[in-house]
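the two lines:
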Amino acid sequence: MDILITGLLLGGTYALIAVGLNLQYGMVRIMNLANGELIVIGGFAAFWFQTAASVSPLLTVFLVAPVAFALNWLIYTVMLRPLVKRAKSRGQLEVDAILTTFGLSFVAVGVMLAVFGGDYFSYSYLARPVELLGATFGLNRIMAFLGAVVICGALYLWLNHSRPGLSIRAIAVAPQSARLVGIDVQKLSALAFALGGAVTAVGGGLISMFLTLDASTGVMFTLKALIIVIMGGVGDMRGTIVAALALGVLESFVASVLDPGLTLAAAYLLFLLVLLFRPQGLFGRGQA
Amino acid sequence: MDRRRLFKLAATTALATTLAAGAALAQEAVKIGAVGPKTGGLAGGAAVSFWPNVQLWAHDVNARGGLNIGGEMRPVEIIEYDDQTNPGETIKAVQRLATQDEADFILAPYSTGLNLAAAPIFDRFGYPMVTHTAISDQIVELSQRFPNMYFTLGGATGLAGGVVEVLTKMRDAGQIGNKVAMVNVADAFGIELAEVARPAFAEAGFEIVYDTSYPLGTQDLSPIVKGAAAAEPDAFVAWSYPPDTFGLTEQAMIEGLDVKAFYTAVATSFPAYAGRFGAAANGVLGAGGVAATSASFQEYAARHEQVTGAKPDFWASGMVYSSFQILEQAIEAVGSLDKEAVSAYIAENDFETVMGTISWDENNNNAAYWTVGQWMDGVFNGVASTGREGAIEPVAKTGWE
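prediction for all of em together
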């Protein structure tokens, strides 16, 4: 039970890291390799407000979200839309987007180094024990998990029950046909991309409560997010959440019962098995 | 003489005059290369211990008017390269500094791995290499292969031995029992130290009740701390790296791992550690240490903060600056930029630095170094060393409040 809760809390962290990328890659077909850098920026904002002005990271995220939304909207319209327009096939768009965002990640690291310096930024927030079913857990991890639940729940409802959400899913399935039924593909793509960015930055703010970040740690998160999104099935919100939780529970189980040294091996084994037996991901649809 | 030629002549004269004026104003700078991580895995550590000292040292030397080279005061010019924490890039950068930038001297890179990677190329170009952050038990072999390589920060056996020594002292004083929980990061540093520490603990009569490793970059360390707590140890020892040093400490607070001796390795001596944990850091043991109350360190720390805007850490920072001081003193004593002569001078002399006197054994190794420090009221003072002065007595940790 203890292991299960630890695993779910870790899974929540992973969901925060990966859900934004799922929106960007799954819905808009932009494989955003600068995802991790955005997490670090969100984390830095939380750190800065907490240490300089004692503002709770839980409040900071409400400021981070619109700023990250605007920033990603800009990135999409200025940098990525030309790629979408000229791409003749999905494959070409993916290659172009990977190269562009890979470059963007370097720029982001450089800017962060210039602005914040390369030092670790770490602060202590809600590092208090909470008793749950006879075991203790960090309050900051629980808050981050609740944040993940709220964000994932809201996104799920929005994507399945609101008009823009449904339109975005239509774009994800068939970008060409979506236009025929009166969906403004350009506008909604930008919206989905920007929303993904906002979610990622908020996730970064939440996980900075218990993880120590520096300007160069982004790539670690990008890798984890990629694994989770691909494992869950590209473009499926449920898949990402299930994959994140499964990975968290698996890692905690291995660390507690077998050996902490084997967690990475176990995570990649799971990834390998999913790729072998269900290459489209847990919830993904086969290629049409 | 037609107009075009006249114009050309005038332009050339003007240019020559400007150049001459410039040269008269400032002596030609001594080019010093600096290679280290600004991005990648070790960038966080280098941003605390390495880069600010490069800035501070150049500032200090130039504020004095420069290096005194045979009676001529010449300023230093630093040429910096980011090696992205990638040994291949370190080698390329050193090569570039040697061949294209024609650097007069090159500061040793940051961290054990990058120093080992760069040692052959320093050797090939004949640059003296005064390392500051290379921790190795291979010093004898290395100094034989690379006669211009110097070591200052110590070896794994000394670091692990320091921890065993401190815990033994605390056990003999009745502060702790003999059960130790030991964890290590599954990386070169953590594995080597755990392997050295295991027999050393056994020999000193300690019982290792929990012994495990975890991958670098583990995001949830709670299973490890829970496992350690379940073994009910008297002391907790982690051969850890920066992100996990913070993570393990926070998790120990949450789990209430209430040991009387709590040790984490790299980055425990960083100002950010006390900044994050405040009074809860009191009594935490960590790798390194300095004679924090010595006048030379305090003066250095004040200058570091004034010039770079950041506090130095209580271990490697001072040694990084000291290694630059050694190079500086050797260049001035020799009075030329002759790399061979400077290197020979380093080998034959002792040096007064901000960390105290540095002297070499037959393997170009500074045999007297700090091994363990302890936080108390915002200061991380050395509690064990292999022969340095200024150590204080370790105290038992009293909870996390």
